[in-house]
Amino acid sequence: MVSCLLAAGEGRRGAEQTAEVLLAADLGGIDSHGCARLRRYVEGLASGAIAAEAAIETVSATPATAALDANNGLGAPAAIEATEVAVAKAGAVGVGVVSVRRSNHFGIAGYYASRAARKGMIGLVLSNASPQVSPVFGAEPMFGTNPLAIGMPTGEGDGFLLDMATSTVGRGKLEVRQRRAEPIPEGWVIDASGAPRVDVEELIDGLKARRGYSLLPLGGSSEEFGAHKGYGLGLFADLVCGPLAGAAWGRHVYGPAGADLGHLIVAIQVEAFRDRAEFEAECRQMFAELRAARRAAGADRIFIPGEKEVEERERRLSDGIPLTEAVSADLAALAEQCGVPAPELR
Amino acid sequence: MVSCLLAAGEGRRGAEQTAEVLLAADLGGIDSHGCARLRRYVEGLASGAIAAEAAIETVSATPATAALDANNGLGAPAAIEATEVAVAKAGAVGVGVVSVRRSNHFGIAGYYASRAARKGMIGLVLSNASPQVSPVFGAEPMFGTNPLAIGMPTGEGDGFLLDMATSTVGRGKLEVRQRRAEPIPEGWVIDASGAPRVDVEELIDGLKARRGYSLLPLGGSSEEFGAHKGYGLGLFADLVCGPLAGAAWGRHVYGPAGADLGHLIVAIQVEAFRDRAEFEAECRQMFAELRAARRAAGADRIFIPGEKEVEERERRLSDGIPLTEAVSADLAALAEQCGVPAPELR
């Protein structure tokens, strides 16, 4: 991954940081956001749609905040820099909030939340994304699947990690069902009349090509099950990553002038509120009680957010990362295209 | 409301602040959190379960944070103080995060988010609550409906306001359906085997009496529609309001030693990132585009979060707040019990 990014013009640091974020996704089992996305980044750099070796500039700052401009560079280096600045500010004054404008896709939001958590901070990460989600009562993609990730140190494994799209599902979940030849349920996608659709092949292509399909906010299509909540969370992410950060928003993200994505990263110092060991001990006690709660008939386990990813990473670190044939072939083709040695895939 | 709270021993300032928060709920149409709750507060003060005229103490502070102890006083005065401190810190260093421990029910979370927004800040408010919600794959109430509210100044009406329980619904929604003699849908409540239940009378009583029923996280009972997301958001609120703030958490909230609720209030200064007028103009443009989006068949309007409450407040400020006969009678009885003049209700 690093060699391909270097071949496309990115500097070593940005290439390594980007590869680290992609690898974190592959290790955690989030295959939609791992090396399968490398081509998009490499081709973006090669075509100039993404600026190589972009300088990350500080637009403004206060003791607890900073506004960064990624100058249309890769998202991962900009978001890593934003996380580091937020963590440093939180270390100094208790909290740090850092925005990024003019950025690109930054991979999994959870990477940055975990990075803050590993440094003893509560991390909250938001981004906007290409428009695919309809407002409640609407039937048109007006904003992105805008991810929200929260990480927390708990003295146990990798801590608490919630990494979620604010839509019911992201497009990646449709692709997983397609690969497994499984149907998708009503309540994931609607067409331009607001009617539910389940023909997954058409929907995957049609969402990409903006043929009028929309994903639904978390909570679905009606207020009865809380769709206004997922809608509100998605707009919150868009408002702070767009108008507040000074990036594009809503259906203007990935417009003719480029992605112009925005991110917002918050770091909160645990010790500003509570002795860290006491905090972590109570978190672990909470998780132990949740795991021991009465289970629904037929359920065999209650999970803590982030636990599945941690276990998957342990498995993959030991057994390797399974790639589909399509991804393996694409990585080999991309390596050849970039003039770098083909990856040794087994 | 003020007279009753004074009669129960609260000081004038705490009584007026509490009444203001209850009134804001009644005006916004959130009847479950308005004057209908006055009895609970008055009886709590009278019995000593809630401490009257409790001093709000600062346990620790940094330039951007403070940890407060409400000393078991009413929730509203403590949360108003926390909001004011968060806003002042955000004004000084860009962000303020203030926790509250040993608190009680604070009314609608949206009140505090709106209060921060009226002062030009982005407000984020979290609280934990009495245990009523089951983890995903569980069948036991292990944490509360833990509200999350977000307010933002937009130069338009009262701005953006999202005020949501992190469960699919709170108990108040069951009570509204009961009053209207309407059925509740499968997907709101489960019994101790994890099976969906819809017998609303039994469920309202049974949830209060902790007879083994649980509300479900936003997203429902399966990961297919994102229940792990609502579950994660509910735990996030519990982790920062419990272990971080130093309050009770999970099923220990409202335990034998008292409520010991926790809150967390975040204020972010808009101008630290963006010119305020530019920010607000873009927010308004986003809302205009959302309102004009293509609508689903049969839908006649797309809403912005908070808009319904603002319109309801305008209606009620002009036409009055409709009270059910049960609430009117209870307020009259409470006034008599407190030895204060009966309210003049029409």
Question: What key phrases describe this protein's structure?
Answer:
seven-stranded mixed beta sheet, three-stranded antiparallel beta sheet, globular, 11 helices, homodimer, 346 residues, alpha+beta
Structure explained in plain terms:
The structure is a homodimer of 346-residue chains. Chain A is of the alpha+beta class and 346 residues long. Helices cover 41% and strands 16% of the residues of chain A. Chain A has helices at residues 2-7, 12-28, 38-47, 75-93, 109-118, 171-179, 200-208, 227-244, 276-291, 307-319, 325-338, and strands at residues 57-62, 65-69, 95-103, 121-127, 147-152, 160-165, 189-190, 196-197, 214-215, 261-269. Chain A has a seven-stranded mixed β-sheet with strand order 1-2-3-10-4-5-6. In chain A, strands 8-7-9 form a three-stranded antiparallel β-sheet, with helices on one face. In chain A, helix 4 (75-93) packs parallel to helix 5 (109-118). The longest helix of chain A is centred in the first third of the chain and has 19 residues, at 75-93. Chain A is globular and about 50 Å long. In chain A, 59% of the residues are buried. The interface between A and B is large, with 87 and 87 residues.
Considering residues with a beta carbon less than 8 A from a beta carbon on another chain, report the largest interface and each chain's count. A-B, 87 and 87 residues
Q: Name the overall outline of chain A.
A: globular
Fraction of residues in H or I helices of chain A:
40-55%
Low-confidence stretches of chain A: none
* Radius of gyration of chain A, whole Å: 20 Å
Question: Largest sheet of chain A, described in full?
Answer: 7 strands, mixed
Mean pLDDT of chain A: 96
Strand line-up across the major sheet of chain A: 1-2-3-10-4-5-6
Structural class computed from helices and strand pairing of chain A: alpha+beta
Run of helices and strands of chain A = HHHEEHEHEEEHEEHEHEHHH
